[in-house]
Amino acid sequence: MIGSSRPVAGGPSPRSTVVRSAAQDRPGPALPTLDADRSDAAYRDWLKEAVRKVQADANRSADTHLLLFPLPEHWGIDLYLKDESTHPTGSLKHRLARSLFLYGLCNGWIRPDRPVIEASSGSTAVSEAYFAGLIGVPFIAVMPRTTSAEKCRLIEFHGGQCHFVDDSRTMYEESAALAARTGGHYMDQFTYAERATDWRGNNNIAESIYRQLERERYPEPAWIVATAGTGGTSATLARYVHYMQYDTRICVADPENSCFFEGWTTDSAEAVCESGSRIEGIGRPRMEPSFVPGAIDRMMKVPDAAAIATVRALEAALGRKAGGSTGTGLWGALKIVAEMVGQGRTGSVVTLLCDPGERYLDKYYSDDWLTAQALDIRPYAAALDTFLATGSWPEETAI
């Protein structure tokens, strides 16, 4: 694992070329007078009902749990996992999908009977299929052919369609082209994730974490560790921390085959990665517009084998299976806990349980898949066992 923190914050968020949807670029009708009225009563009635339904989903969804990961009491450190798998669609992306649908509806981009199209490796598509079904519009997910079969089943369960590409780097262009052909709206989570969420509060994930920690012995965490797919969650967490003037630091754990770590450490908006991430939902081949590097304090590069060893350790500790993104973040959080132990510091650390491991039984919980991917988790599993038993984190060269 590689870790890095920068003494000087980066500049503005890197902006790669954004492919806009047909709905956004399509010119409106010619206006015959300066007082033209483009309103339509039937559409406005539909829009009000669609927004009501999406907002009602938030009211029906109780807040997600904050789970305590067992650590030795004498360390004086509490480690929590924000369990986002309890959302109606089973993942952290439920929050994002709700925000993106409200954003698209209120901007006039999502229209009756026209499809919503998204480039997604799985969980966002599952959640967006749910909200599309809720308001009665078609949904098409453009995704890599290697996406887990269970995620594809869930998308179809919620009424969506799966449109596969062989190269994950072509998802953006294919989504935009599909929107143009169908007259639909390309949601483009990788551009709009950071702006669709109300980062100042309104029961976002950051505000929820701090509210749930109010009665804990360390209510203001020393660190929150996230992972990045769009970068929207880390942006929301970091902005909220700065806005509320907390001393919490934000760390982003990045998997193999992702360019975020390189782009952050080199301040390069042009960083790319030629291979797709094996950890579904996180890691990107380009610096996404929604990733806000200047807002976060630290990044770590986490080996995929370490992430998978960690989700298996999580199951042993809590009896819960989780996806690889959870393992990536939890490995980073445990590394920070080890640093705090070594420095004699007390406090709390928070990371995320992003989605359930039952979606990945044929991958991260399959020894055959590990063999096919040439991933050996044994050194990382041994490192975790040693750390949890002794508080000593093995030297980087040893694992």
Automatic annotation (TrEMBL):
Source domain of life: Bacteria
Positions of the Tryptophan synthase beta chain-like PALP domain: 70-355
Keywords attached to this entry: Cytoplasm, Lyase, Pyridoxal phosphate
Modification N6-(pyridoxal phosphate)lysine occurs at: K93
Catalytic activity: L-cysteine + H2O = hydrogen sulfide + pyruvate + NH4(+) + H(+)
Membrane-spanning parts: none
Region (Disordered): 1-36
SUPFAM superfamilies in alphabetical order: Tryptophan synthase beta subunit-like PLP-dependent enzymes
Enzyme Commission number: 4.4.1.1
InterPro entries: Cds1, Cys_Synth/Cystath_Beta-Synth, TrpB-like_PALP, TrpB-like_PALP_sf
Cofactor: pyridoxal 5'-phosphate
Task performed by this protein: A cysteine desulfhydrase that generates hydrogen sulfide, H(2)S. The H(2)S produced by this enzyme modulates the balance between respiration and glycolysis, and contributes to redox homeostasis. Probably eliminates toxic levels of Cys (which can induce oxidative stress).
Similarity field: Belongs to the cysteine synthase/cystathionine beta-synthase family. Cds1 subfamily.
Annotated protein name in UniProt: L-cysteine desulfhydrase Cds1
Natural source organism: Streptomyces physcomitrii
Phylogenetic classification of the source organism: Bacteria, Bacillati, Actinomycetota, Actinomycetes, Kitasatosporales
Gene expressing this chain: cds1
